[in-house]
UniProtKB/TrEMBL annotation:
Domain F-box positions: 1-44
Protein name: F-box domain-containing protein
Coiled-coil boundaries: none
Pfam families recorded: F-box-like (PF12937)
PROSITE patterns per the UniProt record, alphabetical: FBOX
Lineage: Eukaryota, Fungi, Dikarya, Basidiomycota, Agaricomycotina
CDD domains: F-box_SF
SMART domains: FBOX
Length: 475
């Protein structure tokens, strides 16, 4: 063994578990030195984390390529520790913090994570006074970086582009469209938000904001996609088959297309290479949902690295709760997936004959999630396969079922699509094919009204009806 080349030992080490490599440090000085090589831990991290599609928490903006051997070892440990805890039946809360409301009894109406992990919250008082805040959650005591009060708020959207904080991070209607950035040099949080631009525009809603692109709704419910640097050139997204405009619940926008999730339809629009004033776009594809959607969210799925010759379009992950003819939603969550079309010609225009996805979306599973009459529920999903929601399933924890809330989730690992796996289950509004795989928290109150989570950092935030925000961390 001692006469084998060092390269052979490095190759063997790369196929071991991290625990085995640490044990081998005690065998000999040579093994100790080998176990501290950067190439060893880079190979282990790639094999056990990156290729397994597991996020790496607490990189703080660093790239894997810039990490030292010790940092790679620690990153591997953190990633595997978080994944084990996150997917347990009862994940262990490693840290719990409450952020008190600046003004008591302000109801949380919106919670969003910025691309860098900071939290943006919006709360509203009974007399419709709005408080917008931005929090840094990394310190042991979270820091409020910025806060601003509004007398009017017609909606907001978080900048999905991972630019600098001096760029616009929030677009808000007040009542005109304002683009706000963070002033990290401000000594007072009341001066933490700085106005980058105010656009005098007749707008009644904001649905998407990334870089300089924005998707808004006018007072007639019509959708417009445009750039904030040239507000005159905009295109209207119009479905001519809709007799009555329905609510837009979520949207995915790339440089090539817009995928719009409405209460009754799913619509794919091909974006032109340049925006022209008064242009109208019709969907290249329309899918009608079997029932009206009560609540829904969607995201593009992260996936393991692939060869450069393979497709680059990411799959889409949708979780929704349908409504019903009764004054409550059905007690099921429906998990749909849309896989990238392997026959899509990326160099050709998107059309009904050349779609980036395989339509219609197929139903992967239905998840049992009961909600009582008049109870508040919310849901969120992450790019690595986690869906988290609040519901009324509390009889397993208390002696009653007439009040209380559960914070539950289900993790769906990334699966490479093939013909056999894509057999759709029978659609049902009453039968669940799956249940929650994790219960993160539960309570006897009914105070949780909004949720958001950062899947990479293992962090969940719960917004309460009294304005308090609870942070749960799982690493």
């Amino acid at each position: 063994m001692s006469h084998l080349p060092t390269d052979i030992f490095q190759l063997v080490f790369g196929h071991l578990d991290a625990h085995d490599v640490r044990n081998l440090r005690q065998v000999s000085r040579e093994f100790y030195e080998l176990s501290n090589l950067r190439s060893i831990w880079e190979a282990l991290l790639r094999r056990h984390v990156i290729l397994q599609n597991i996020p790496i928490p607490r990189l703080n903006g660093k790239s894997v390529e810039s990490l030292t051997a010790r940092e790679l070892e620690e990153a591997l440990h953190r990633a595997l520790k978080l994944r084990r805890n996150w997917t347990k039946e009862s994940p262990r809360v490693e840290r719990r913090v409450n952020l008190d409301a600046i003004i008591p009894h302000h109801r949380n109406v919106s919670l969003h994570f910025l691309p860098d992990g900071k939290l943006v919250s919006l709360s509203m008082s009974r007399n419709r006074v709005f408080i917008l805040q931005c929090w840094d959650l990394c310190p042991s005591e979270p820091i409020c970086l910025a806060t601003r009060q509004f007398d009017r708020c017609g909606g907001l959207a978080i900048n999905k582009s991972s630019g600098t904080l001096s760029d616009g991070i929030v677009a808000i209607l007040n009542p005109h469209l304002e683009i706000l950035c963070l002033d990290l040099h401000a000594t007072d949080p009341t001066n933490g938000f700085r106005n980058l631009a105010t656009i005098q525009d007749v707008t009644s809603g904001i649905h998407f904001f990334s870089g300089s692109s924005i998707l808004t709704k006018d007072t007639h419910g019509r959708l417009y996609f445009w750039g904030i640097n040239n507000s005159q050139n905009r295109v209207q997204l119009q479905n001519p088959d809709l007799n009555q405009l329905t609510a837009l619940l979520d949207v995915i926008v790339t440089q090539e297309f817009v995928l719009a999730l409405r209460a009754t339809t799913l619509e794919l629009y091909a974006l032109p290479s340049s925006l022209q004033s008064n242009a109208i776009l019709h969907p290249a594809f329309i899918h009608s949902w079997p029932w009206r959607v009560d609540n829904a969210t969607m995201t593009m799925r992260q996936r393991p690295p692939r060869r450069s010759s393979e497709r680059t379009t990411k799959d889409v992950y949708i979780v929704m709760r349908f409504g019903s003819y009764f004054p409550w939603a059905i007690n099921l969550l429906h998990h749909y997936e849309i896989h990238a079309n392997p026959l899509f010609l990326k160099d050709s225009p998107i059309s009904a004959l050349n779609l980036p996805y395989e339509f219609p979306p197929f139903l992967r599973e239905t998840i049992g999630s009961p909600v009582r009459l008049h109870a508040t529920s919310d849901l969120a999903i992450g790019p690595y396969g986690s869906a988290i929601w609040t519901d009324s399933h509390t009889e397993d924890y208390f002696d009653h079922a007439d009040h209380g809330q559960r914070l539950a989730g289900r993790f769906s690992p990334y699966v490479v699509a093939n013909g056999e796996d894509n057999e759709e289950i029978e659609l049902s509004d009453s039968v669940a094919t799956a249940s929650a795989t994790s219960v993160y928290a539960y309570q006897e109150e009914d105070s949780w009204v909004r949720i958001a989570f950062d899947e990479t950092e293992g962090r969940i935030v719960l917004g309460r009806g009294d304005g308090v925000i609870t942070i749960l961390e799982y690493i």
